[in-house]
Description:
Oligomer: heterodimer
CATH superfamily of chain B: Dihydropteroate synthase-like
Helix content of chain B: 25-40%
Shape of chain B: globular
CATH class of the largest domain in chain A: Alpha Beta
Bound molecules: cobalamin, iron/sulfur cluster
Radius of gyration of chain A: 27 Å
CATH architecture of chain B: Alpha-Beta Barrel
Strand order of the largest sheet of chain A: 10-9-8-7-6-3-12-11
Distance between the termini of chain A: 68 Å
Shape of chain A: globular
CATH topology of chain B: TIM Barrel
Radius of gyration of chain B: 19 Å
Strand content of chain B: 5-15%
Largest interface: A-B, 56 and 50 residues
Strand content of chain A: 15-25%
Strand order of the largest sheet of chain B: 8-7-6-5-4-3-10-9
Amino acid sequence: MALTGIQIMKMLPKKNCGECNVPTCLAFAMKVAAGQADIGDCPYVSDEVKEKVGEASAPPIRTVKLGSGDHVFQVGGETCLYRHEKRFEHPTGIAVRIATDMDDADIAGRLERFRTLRYDRVGVLLKADLVAVQDAGGDEAAFTALVERVRSECPDAALVLMSDSPAVLAAGAKACGDHVPLLYAATPENADQMLETAKAAGCPLAVRGATIGETAALAERLAAEVKDLVLDTGARTLRAAFEDQVAARRSAIRTKYRPLGFPTITFPCEMTDDPEVEAMVASVLVAKYAGIVVLSDLQGDTLFPLLLERLNLFTDPQRPMVVQEDVYPINGPDENSPVLVTCNFSLTYFIVSGEVEGSKVPSWLLIKDTEGLSVLTAWAAGKFSADLIAGFVKKSAIADKVKHRNLIIPGYLASIKGELEEELPDWNIQIGPREASHLPAFLREWQPN
Amino acid sequence: IPADGYKDPATGTIREVVLGEGDKAVAVGGVSTLPFHLFEGEMSRPPATALEVLDEAPEEWPESLARHYADVLSDPVAWARKCVQDYGARAVCLSLVSTDPNGTNRASAEAAQTAKAVVEALDVPVILWGCGNAEKDTETLREVTSLIGDRKVCLAPLTDANYRNIGATAMAFQLPVVASTPIDVNLAKQLNILLENLGLSLDHVLMDPSIGALGYGLEYTYSVMERIRLAALTQQDDKLQAPFICHLGREVWKAKETRLPSDEMLGDQERRGVLMEAMTAVCLMLAGGDLMVMRHPKAVALAEAVARGLM
Ligand code: B12
Ligand code: SF4
């Protein structure tokens, strides 16, 4: 059970020295209880207390780490059912499956797409995370060769090694070296051998039962010896998979039911043969609690929307994504270049700066601090009004950088043109397009007035 | 596994709102559980979908979307018929975009004639969605209702700026309405209260929470819908027990990524747009959405397939 701030307070030395960067022990204890500070930040607590508090404050769903060095993939660690309660911690891992009985071209294509289908959005790299390597015939040599191939061609991929044979998995794990893979899977039939294999290899172990109940029972038994488990409840229909995900997450969060307190792995690739339906199934599981979704292939048109969904739902609702208020030069502007102004919501910034960059027209982009609100939201909230924009334009000293006096405002703010002209009498206010996608054409035509 | 660990049946019920009339009527809402939580409650029906028709030819639609309506884009009546006959739409949302004072600014009376023709050409429920300008919408929707007799269309959107006038019209003709608020639990609740005070029963109200599309603010809509639905179902907040309508197609198809051509990185243009729309719809269904207003027939088919798969 989680400890309260008062209970933690009793274990602190009550020096109120502030070395933990919180003024008093009580305030520190409250922060630890709320999961906002780490008990280890107080240099004076004993290891015993650290362990006690650490265990009690461990998230109801264990965090499992795969990979090595700079390429660590984490899953689990979740603490809530709905993102507005706090936030979702670790974005659902997206895996692509390859198997020893696939054509070389099919494998090569999947690995290449794993490497190349990467997108930069709001400064975040969007990409698939894992490669699931499946043993199709119990051939140890073929399996290790494939594992080695993935390691060399996709060094940043975390691996799921899939086989019914403990010996094949052991060989695969060995081929991974220190790059920790997930071993898939212990079942009621092979649990003891799989347990030994996972222990010997020091790897997390996936557990698969025919039902969620059987999975939980097996996990409970294995957890005594392997701490890092990942659950496959055996569901292979959308309805059952959804229900199991909800049941597992709720049991773990609401009642701290330990046998289900592990991240999950799901297999949209085994639920349909239609790639579009597969992507849709994955979209349900990304929203509803899957730790990992295993896909049959990666294609830009299905992967990109799925990555966007994941980015959105795993964004921290308590922290708006913002960029710094500033004057941003794009494409090497000079004193004759156009001047545009927008808000500091990072999505807006990245869209607008992306279009300006794409236009190849050297430009000055003024970013006003709107506390991370979009153009219209900020305007409606009174954070992007004519007087505030005018104040910022003056403060930015953009007037020293350009000879002309033309300011381009977002098309959606057309209504503030008059007011802005009053606030900035030296400036000519130009209404830009509404959608940033029309900016390149607009900028190429632009002339100082 | 212990059932009390995961079962947590809802105690409230979302009202059922009926759109249209006769055997083509479509009921939405009426659920007494979180979306698709069939293991602990009742969901009498999967979320519904409606196809959107514009009252003037769209200039900005990518070819990958427009080609499905190529022969009818400048004829709203034919367009609406096509939605029903070719794409099996069980409801149609006619967006009166031509009336926008920032756009074509067509006179209300003229737009109302088109709307009348569309309503008369269909036997499925029709949602008449104004351009978003409070005064103009009041005028246009009033014009339409005076033309269509007792046809049970749904009027949208009612905002805090025009709910009195459109609400009065709706009550006079006993029509369902859409209450629109900008992604905010309290504002949504407030508008429902205002409507009730006006004398309009929540049995005729759909809530529009305002939609951010996939990649463009989806998370805000998603969470506000989850919060509203939890309040309605688990805290018996009866002012929030109305079904959600999600006007999502117009937001999705604004996104740049639906327009970028096919290439190696982003794959096939049409499939990408379809999945962006279908995934937006599915996320909103998971957050409680009851009626999805969409554009691409294939996206509708995918979203409906998922909803059926979850039932
Ligand atoms: C998500 C959202 C929110 C989120 C905030 C998200 C954020 N970080 O800003 C939340 C839920 C917090 C929110 C709150 C509110 N919101 Co709000 N919100 C939205 C929503 C759904 C999407 C906004 C968004 O993220 N757009 C994406 C970004 C990228 O768009 P953008 O910044 O405008 O940039 C585009 C263009 O403007 C252009 N562009 C940008 N910069 C520039 C610069 C130049 C020079 C040019 C040429 C072009 C250009 O390029 C971009 C892409 O094309 C919109 C409705 C909608 N579907 O659009 C309503 C909306 C903006 N919100 C609205 C309102 C009223 C509010 C509230 C005031 C409601 C309230 N009373 O509480 C609050 C205000 C916030 C507060 N008090 O703290 C209204 C604004 C109405 C109006 N016309 O003024 C809208 C339009 C909804 C509506 N129809 O009523 N909102
Ligand atoms: S560092 Fe330790 S002793 Fe000092 S104030 Fe913080 S909790 Fe108290």
